[in-house]
User: What shape does this take?
Amino acid sequence: MSNITYTPGTQNAPFGLSNANAVGANYIGDASGTVDATKLLGLEIRRAIVDTAPSAYYDSLKLMYASAWKAKASDEFTYFESTFGRSPIVASAGVGSVAASPGNVVTQPIVVTNDSLSRLSLNMVVGYNTGEKGTITNIAGNTITISSYKSFGLGAVAINSTLPVITMVGADGDDRFYNYSRMETIERYNYIQFLSRSCRWDRIEQKKWENKGTTDFMIKDKAQKMEQIRFDMLNSMWNGQRGEVSLANGRVAKTMGGIIPSMQAAGASFSSATPAGFKSVFKQSAFATNHKGKGSTRFVHGTWETLDLFAESFKGNPVVRYENGDKNLDLDLDSIKVGGTKYVMVPTEIWKESSCYTPDFANKLVCLDYDSITPCYMSGIPQIETFQTDDLTKGTANGFTDYTVQSQISLEFDNPKANFAIQIM
Assistant: This one.
């Protein structure tokens, strides 16, 4: 067979640069198929596949490691909290005031709620919103009798109003005890959730990719399973609903209760605020839920947009003054101190990812006490583990290999009401 002759410089097929294309070259499509391709040329392909997920997403994973993980012996665990140990008395009906009688004691019957009845006893000194005080001297059904201090009267009591228990009182020579009580507890529980992500490669398919792959696709494909299961864990930690779910194979599984649903179930503060009213709402929520002492630290999660609003609310000033040489204006805010407590800003950009969270999260701000949140796992099983199944070469009937990442996570969330959330409208 003789060689092909051609006229140089005319770019006539199959010669010239425009026809010097590897099979699969993008230029063939751009030229609408009017140019040639040859297997004698290979595509120029970069080996490394670049991860384009925002790096800030990965910063959000730090929440899972803010506290040391705690091992549990079972996939279900229960824990208890003690209350403050005293509760106000709540009136279930209103009653009028009783005028003072000089040198005498006056009395007033008050009907109280069933819940109050289980938390009061004789000889408790209670206070009135109008300033008077008296002692409980009789209990008959849901009606308690308040006796005034000598020569003093008793104020009116409105329905659903509260009377604080100031103290207990006793007299010398008493022949009995009047106040008996047992500590009251709140029971909480959670499940440990097990998660899994896998990929499968047929035996010959895998070998072909290993031999002829032009990129690091196989390596990145397996690594991505590890990355995504960590986001599964984070999403469950934030927004998991405790309960039972049905699976495609007819089995059922337990799921953990996450931070937001646990706060909602416990009656934690969830407020909404406009940008103009944000500062006031934040301070009100902070004061109402600060159960820790002076010098404590709480953490405020939100996207950069909500944290920027936070910074503008607390740092912004309608008059910004510059000095000679100033070239930068720092509008970011790392932390603030309100009521003796430090509030640290924590960017949580993953909340903007629609494949993980509903749109409301992008405008949400959540304040947490990390000391009350403990990630949990079932002892004897690794928190995260990877393995692969055997194929034909290991004596099985499987003509494939499954690569699997499995993990587990749950939360022990003490006093959820000591945390709060604000939805920016």
